[in-house]
Structure prediction request, 425 residues.
Amino acid sequence: MQAAFQGLLVILIGVGAAVGYFYFSNVYLDKVVFPARAQTADELRARRIKAPLISFLLVIALVVIATFLLPVLVARSMSDVAAALLGGFGAVWALATSISGLYVLVVAVIAALATRLLLAGDLSGIGQNINRANLIRPWLFLGPALFALGLYLAYPVIETLRLSLTDRVPIPGGGGAFRYQFVGLDNYTQMMGEPKFWEALRNNFFWLLVVPAMSTVFGLLAAQLTDRLSWGNIAKSMIFMPMAISFVGASVIWKLVYDFRPAGSEQIGILNALVTSLGGEPQTWLTVPFWNSFLLMIVLIWIQTGFAMVILSAALRGIPEETIEAAIVDGANPLQIFFKIKVPQISGTIVVVWTTITLVVLKIFDIVFAMTNGQWETQVLANYMYAKLFTSNDWGVGSASAMVIMILVLPILIWNVRNARREMR
Prediction:
């Protein structure tokens, strides 16, 4: 299957599935669950039995259809479509016999119970049915998003926690198969006994101290200074441009900046070319302990400064002109206006930018993996987790380190959400 046709097919199926879901779910709500007509006691009793059963079967059917169609969407040629259709049956069977199938079953049961609860009370009149349907209708639109969040966020967290408390033990004569044996907190104990974990934790702490602070400071300075230039929009575009580059792409660019060639050779790395032009010796910058971590941080600061600048520039433009004019009348100089008038008024935005970049730093992986792979004392938690999971094949310790990252991220995430809700009020 050609890539263009495959992409078009995915779009058509995705859009068609979304439109079909919203249309038929509303028809189901208005015709089956809460019909806009008066009903007898026997009809209401039958509806309370039929509607939950239909809800249960609908959830199962939607997941089965989606699982069945998935192999078709990834088929590489039209001749593979028939094989993909057969593969769809295998995908459905694999889903039914896995823990994901149990998750789908739980969701279906919850849908049936929710439908039954919604049908409680007096629903014999037309008005009661219409009012109840209008209360439920917004949740039909939220349903797919909640399902996806549960499948791709809640379920992985629970499964990671389970894996962090177990160990994969080979089954004798099982042909490479494994079973999971509960070991309690042994994986966490083993992780804390490894020097690489503490190195990763220490480096993450340094990243937290440096990157959010520098990115926010440079972003604030860029926002303030570019607003005073006639060509400020062009400058902002240039500063923001690194945000459009992936972390791996940025790592490749900066790896060339730090590139090393032996003394006497032509240096293609900008930093070593500058050093040798001043009479110094070229250095393998990424292998110098302690300082190499700061050289990696520069990459993320370069990327995140544009983000901080855009948010803080909008906040600066939102400051009432009256306060600035009053300060000028009182004889305040530009520095006093900036630090004593502007910064206090956008302090809330500064904190939001700081914490948002902090969340990025706690999960930093790509830059370290692409530039040093955690060597030369540059290890961070996310790269440590990756190494344990996919290099050492130690799922227990790898999952334990993932839980540590989640525990570190969660308080900041909750604070950000609560702060956003407070500002909305």
Summary: The first helix runs from residue 3 to 33.
